[in-house]
Amino acid sequence: MAHIELPAGLPGISGGFAFRPETAKPMRELAHVLLHEPNSLTPGERELIAAYVSSQNDCYFCQTSHGAAAACHLGGEDVVRRVKTDFENAPVSPKLKALLAIAGRVQRDGKLVTSEEVERARREGASDVEIHDTVLIAAAFCMYNRYVDGLDTWQPRDAGMYVQMGQHLAEHGYLKSSQR
Amino acid sequence: MPHIALPENQPGIRGAMAFRPETAKPLNDLVEVLLRGQNSLSPGERELIATYVSYLNDCHYCQSIHGAIAAAHLDGDEELVLRVKADFQYADISEKLKALLVIASKVQRDGKLVTAEDVGKARSLGATDIEIHDAVLIAAAFCMYNRYVDGLATVQPRDEAMYRERGKMVARDGYVRISKTYLPAEPVER
After folding, report:
1. CA closest to A16 among chain B residues
2. CB B110 to CB A58 under 8 A?
3. pLDDT surpasses 80 at A61
4. I need a surface site. Which of A164, B80, B119, B189 has the fewest CB within 10 A?
């Protein structure tokens, strides 16, 4: 049972969003800009960063739903699983590996990001906006993960539900239908 | 020096926000609702939660500016801000706020550490569900803002007077209104 009385039947962050629409609105907008709007990083790459950070934070709901969204964008779950376990040897671009290394630092503490890591990303072709967005995606998922876990939201173990959710997110993004 | 080319003369999160106004908007909207929106917790109490979490995350810019904003809301009581950071259990704040700070400090480490007992204690001291929700989300959100500010290696001046003056302005005008002074008026061409 969640720590506070959240609307019934809504998994993970949707329960927190329905309970407090005033904070849900900017949180949805932020995720939409970071993960869904056009960017030189593909939506699949950005969802991989979100899924990776959420797995480092051990947030079941977020890593599973964003993992499903990434899988939907990228046409398979294998890459998601391999990024979570060992991204340096996963089938992703050298640039994304360098960005995942930065994201992994931010997940622990922003001060751990070194100029060598930023240089590596730049050498592999990352732009300043891509580095910025990687830092902010990692930071933002340190918020979403703590929000979902800190309220003790309902996080069902139901693979089919997450696949459906991932498809919906991949297709429509993060705004409420009334915001789109 | 920041890790990427941020606009100069904009310390801390302002430089990052001016670099990327598309994400600055929801970031400012969120902090405005959480720390200044209509709420049974006062703006000063909510700024204390933000300051305390930023202190635990060791983010110099965020703990300094939110500490200054908290003090501005609390009749300039900088001593109280220092006491909350040093040991909030002995600070001159309500028992309810102490219970919410316990929850916030658990969220700062990992949301899963919050126990039913922590929440039960806050509730027994008068905290509502919305107050508990907001304490969790303020703590979670500052785990984002702090990492954003530190992760880009933004400029974080060691200048107490600057934070004190800025804190008064933000306490008076709010986050969204003041953002118009440093965000570009037109979309950035890339």
Report:
1. B133
2. yes
3. yes
4. B189
**CA torsion angle B68 B72 B78 B80 (round to 10):** -110
Q: Which CATH class is domain B12-179?
A: mainly alpha
What is the residue-wise DSSP string for A90-125?
SSS-HHHHHHHHHHHHHHH-GGG--HHHHHHHHHTT
The whole-angstrom distance between residue A38's C-alpha and the CA centroid of its chain comes to 16
Q: Model-level pTM? A: 0.98
Are B111 and A149 in contact by the 8 Å Cβ rule? The answer is: yes
Question: Rounded CA gap, A143 and A23, in Å?
Answer: 13
Structural tokens at position B182: 């440093």
CB contact under 8 A, A20 and B137: yes
- Cα dihedral B150, A138, A87, A162, rounded to 10, equals 170
For chain B, give every domain's residue range: 12-179
pLDDT in tens, A20-54: 999 999 999 999 999 999 999 999 999 999 999 99
Per-residue pLDDT band for B188 (boundaries 50, 70, 90) equals low
